[in-house]
Amino acid sequence: MKRLFTIAALLVAATAAAEEYPSRPVTVIVPFSTGSASDVIARIVLDRMSANVGQRFIVDNRPAAGGALGTAAGAKAAPDGYTILMGASGPLVVAKQLQPALGYDAERDFQPISIYGRLPNIIVVSAKLPIKTLPELVEHLKRNPGVAYGSVGNGSSQHLAGALFEQIAGVKMTHVPYRVTSQLQSDLVAGEVPVSFQLLPNVISAVKAGHVRPLAVANATPLPALPEVPTSAELGLKGYESSAWFGLVAPRGTPRPIVDRLNAEVLAAMRDATVRERFVEFGAEPLTSTPDELGRYISAEVVKWRELITRAGIKLEQ
């Protein structure tokens, strides 16, 4: 009886805390630099949440180790709802496969709140390459194995998108990792690395200028910012989906009523027409989920990319 009373008392206390939450500003660790694509779309959502809730959601940028440093800090934060993390596919899912000694685990150490956006990879070619469609590109690569494709580094979203493309399309390419994104873009435009698998914000200016040609979106649905560009599935490349996705997660042990309150606020922010319009303008796909849906999605992503990384023999440094 005493134990039942204790459990009931804890539930009442947690519910009361959630009703009052948030009573002060909430810190949101963004494990990437100010002005990066992930930072920009996070601020769009968090600004709307701040306005709706009447408390500030303060961005704490911690860019290091590909997002792993900030993500580790999020795992170690107090589970009280006042420090949460902008979780991303790279540091939450991919980093663990490439750096097994990381001090956190996506499925063990975090309580999912909601996904809120996705930046699908886009298959692009230099306009100097006389290829206009995805089937033409696949045929070209089969006739010319070893064609170079560029990315922003080993294990990056672009690298994994390229490796997945190789496996599904049945082609063999040469991965060229860059340390400086601007140099990759210059070489792509010049045709030095004629193919890449890019997030739209990285190449939107080159696409608009006609220097880079988008062939397909690696997503199940078309990208609103590029409605004329078909999905890879529409062009016969079934199962080719690759993106950088973003969501909010809390340290494991955060009370469920607080998680549910945060989830409701993300959903409210993402229903805002202005927020959705800004996502589309930026090349992002606005999304929402329940906490449990995000948890299942993270688990599925862990399996998908672990298998790819193992099959392709991808290492952090090559």
Give an overview of the whole structure:
The chain is an alpha/beta fold and 318 residues long. The chain is 47% helix and 20% strand. It has twelve helices and ten strands. Strands 1, 2, 3, 4, 5, 6, 7, 8, 9 and 10 form a ten-stranded mixed beta sheet that branches. Strand 1, helix 2 and strand 2 form a beta-alpha-beta unit. Helix 2 packs across helix 10 (256-271). The N and C termini lie far apart (61 Å).
Key words describing this protein structure:
318 residues; alpha/beta; 10-stranded mixed β-sheet; 10 strands
The portion of residues assigned to helices is: 40-55%
CA-CA gap between termini: 61 Å
Taken in chain order, the helices and strands follow as: HEHEHEHHEHEHEHEHEEHHEH
Broad structural category = alpha/beta
Tell me the radius of gyration: 21 Å
Number of helices: 12
The share of residues in extended strands comes to: 15-25%
How many distinct beta strands? Answer: 10
* Largest sheet: number of strands, sense, barrel closure: 10 strands, mixed
Shape, per Cα inertia axes: globular
How would you state the average pLDDT, rounded?
A: 91
Give the quaternary arrangement of the chains.
single chain
Low-confidence stretches: 5-10
In short:
This protein is an alpha/beta fold. The protein is built from 12 helices and 10 strands.
